[in-house]
């Protein structure tokens, strides 16, 4: 997810949350980003602002690593009917994913990057998504399974030794 800031007709900033699955923002080349625009609340404020004045800022926050990035640029909307190949390209979530976007994509927002700024992480509180949490928990689950197996082995060994002791003849008292 990221926050998209555009410029209203009155010159004021307008900020909107943009979200999608991991990998939905695409790097087209070293100066161009693109992301699919999904059906939303049907207000089209950002889309209208971009049509009128394409200046935007994309504000990305990576909570687990406490990093943030501001990307300044000029955006344009490419409607689905105007470039079906670009729409299909946006469906691909990248080499680290076997998934694709199946939702309706109304348009693609293409941003010609003018500048970037990575700034201080001091006040970003770390947060993790479900996949990252599950990945960490899986390490503990594996440890628990290993320890349970060791406990089962040791319990069986104790039972075997107890059985062996019970079968031994008792030594007479001196």
Automatic annotation (TrEMBL):
Pfam families: PNPOx_N (PF01243). It comes from the Bacteria. The keyword Transferase does not apply. Residues 2-116 form the Pyridoxamine 5'-phosphate oxidase N-terminal domain. Keywords: Coiled coil. Residues 130-168 form a coiled coil. This is Pyridoxine 5'-phosphate oxidase superfamily flavin-nucleotide-binding protein. It comes from Corynebacterium freneyi.
């Amino acid at each position: 997810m990221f926050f998209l800031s555009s410029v209203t007709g009155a010159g004021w900033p307008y900020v909107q949350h943009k979200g999608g699955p991991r990998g939905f923002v695409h790097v087209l080349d070293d100066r161009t980003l693109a992301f699919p625009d999904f059906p939303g609340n049907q207000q089209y404020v950002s889309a209208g602002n971009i049509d009128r004045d394409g200046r935007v800022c994309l504000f990305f926050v990576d909570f687990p690593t406490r990093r943030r990035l501001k990307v300044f640029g000029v955006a344009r909307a490419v409607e689905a009917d105007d470039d079906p190949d670009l729409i299909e390209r946006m469906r691909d979530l990248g080499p680290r994913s076997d998934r694709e976007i199946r939702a309706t994509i109304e348009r693609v927002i293409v941003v010609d990057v003018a500048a970037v700024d990575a700034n201080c992480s001091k006040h970003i509180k770390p947060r993790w998504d479900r996949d990252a949490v599950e990945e960490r928990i899986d390490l503990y689950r594996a440890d628990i399974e290993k320890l349970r197996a060791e406990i089962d082995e040791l319990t069986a060994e104790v039972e075997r030794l107890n059985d062996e002791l019970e079968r031994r003849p008792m030594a007479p008292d001196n």
